[in-house]
Amino acid sequence: MQTELSEQLGVEHAIFGFTPFPAVAAAISRAGGFGVLGAVRYTAPDDLKRDLDWIEANVDGKPYGLDVVMPAKKVEGVTEADVEAMIPEGHRQYVKDTLARYGVPELAEGEASGWRITGWMEQVARNQLDVAFDYPIRLLANALGSPPVDVVKRAHEKGVLVAALAGSARHARKHAEAGIDIVVAQGYEAGGHTGEIASMVLTPEVVDAVDPLPVLAAGGIGSGRQVAAALSLGAQGVWLGSLWLTVTEAETHSRAVTRKLLAAGSGDTVRSRALTGKPARQLRTEWTDAWDDPNGPGTLPMPLQGLLVAEALTRIQKYEVEPLLGTPVGQIVGRMNSERSVQAVFDDLTQGFEQAVDRVNRIAGRVPQS
Amino acid sequence: MQTELSEQLGVEHAIFGFTPFPAVAAAISRAGGFGVLGAVRYTAPDDLKRDLDWIEANVDGKPYGLDVVMPAKKVEGVTEADVEAMIPEGHRQYVKDTLARYGVPELAEGEASGWRITGWMEQVARNQLDVAFDYPIRLLANALGSPPVDVVKRAHEKGVLVAALAGSARHARKHAEAGIDIVVAQGYEAGGHTGEIASMVLTPEVVDAVDPLPVLAAGGIGSGRQVAAALSLGAQGVWLGSLWLTVTEAETHSRAVTRKLLAAGSGDTVRSRALTGKPARQLRTEWTDAWDDPNGPGTLPMPLQGLLVAEALTRIQKYEVEPLLGTPVGQIVGRMNSERSVQAVFDDLTQGFEQAVDRVNRIAGRVPQS
């Protein structure tokens, strides 16, 4: 499965895998795809260094990349305390009441909330890049708009391609103008932050909008048929995130989350502002229902909502409070029904792709030769 | 573009076109596809008879079908007056106030509202079928659940295939159990009534759920690349509705609606209950905004909402009140940027399909022969 982009990056298959787990990223690259490590959780540069060292030792020399969360607009001199002070008391009380209703225990004294807003701040991402540019990464992706001009320049000087996610053609054109190399067209059905345009419509629209820049299709892809569809739509590869959440190599924090993912159908996700204040697709839970409840206070804008719920989510995850326990994931969760190795998932994708191509060739009246 | 289903129906291309306009349906069949006439607006059997006669005279002997709106559950002894009486006064006042705010003129005395609930009632659909079964229709589609068992039986006795729309795998399995022959998997991005699962995820899910029944993919399809994608996903054909709204053969009531469709982007639709009480994708307008406004009374359930707004929609259309004027349409509206003949649209679809197959074959390393 070779496109100009996969050839440029030196990978066998134009399958890009985004994952927060180093073991999964390395396994994706070893299997012939392109593993991309999500860096948002590395607030300490040494932790990122440790995990990139591990990938280097385990990737068999195959190429890989890094995904950061770097806001396009710089927020100067705003501390976490400033943001905390903007959260209304009524919202804090709603979090307390909701947790109390489900009997969610408190954290131990001095135990930190796992997720902090700092992971989303530009300086943190810049510290991550200072670490990452010492490694032979081939791709730098940004999940939050185009990266700043100096970052794009620095990446290009190092021979690193820059990718950015887009949920609309307008958004994609802005990326192209900012000098990025690859657009990831993220459809409505994708996990995490998404727009409202579904992949079937979005992918060719973005392809046409940024031509000749290569586009990766993201959202709704978890089988070889879907890979073939995305490539038919004009993408130069696919960008898969959700599918790796249930692979055996994933160092998932919670067995309960894995069980929920394996059991969920395609209709069990919701595009909700409950997590960050911007619409993000995730498992629908009684927690997301509480934030979408017209009788509740509703969500706050980014970054307030994320800060408001950070400690609550840590408690829900730590104590595995099933009705409230969720995770970002796309509609493809309906196909994630067993725990398999990355290699087994890859074999399924590539074989399914070949079968889909065979089938479409028969429909088109072609007699293909290998 | 030949699948088992297109061969069974004797059409050249596995492209099914749903349209309320006889001239469009006939042109689709003449172009080598399968035209399906939407019957919901034919409350008088003689009108349907007149238009089927016209199709017969203009379809060059090519096969075509009919789409009815037949509720799965029978509602006995309920008149339009009974339903009218269930509409709260506050909602009626909200309609009046909204129309007044935009200065929408009244209808002339005795002038009927164009759309009546009767078109959605089982007896009306049965009267339509009594007419249609005298014509050599090859397919009967139902937009509202599985048709009643006796209707499926009657169709099969006449050699007519029965299709039903589904927005989820569960829904599709119910159709299969009801003995229908074809499932139309209608994705989130489609125009009209839709569920929440996008075509990229829904199509293969429905294909697997009802195998070996053939599935047509609907939603987000308006180019050859999208046709290739849908067939890659396992569909035996595509079902296109929105795309024909702006063809030159369409007897559109309103030039203003056509102008709005040609100008709209993929982000200019909304899935709203404003039209019928069930979520249906349509152009976003100040009218749909008024019904989605948290300060308004909100929508009523089907069939109350449709009856509540029927006269208002007739007035908005008649006087072309631009800010309020909309129509059901899918996200593919972003590609509907010029008025072309059905044949030109068809040529674009089939040539684009061939190019997409060429491209995917190159990616797969195949050297296809014609």
TrEMBL record, chains A, B:
Signal peptide extent: none
InterPro entries documented for this protein: Aldolase_TIM, NMO
Pfam name, any one: NMO
Domain of life (superkingdom): Bacteria
Keywords: Flavoprotein, FMN, Monooxygenase, Oxidoreductase
GO molecular-function term, one example from the UniProt record: monooxygenase activity
Protein name, as recorded: Nitronate monooxygenase
Species per Swiss-Prot/TrEMBL record: Streptomyces dengpaensis
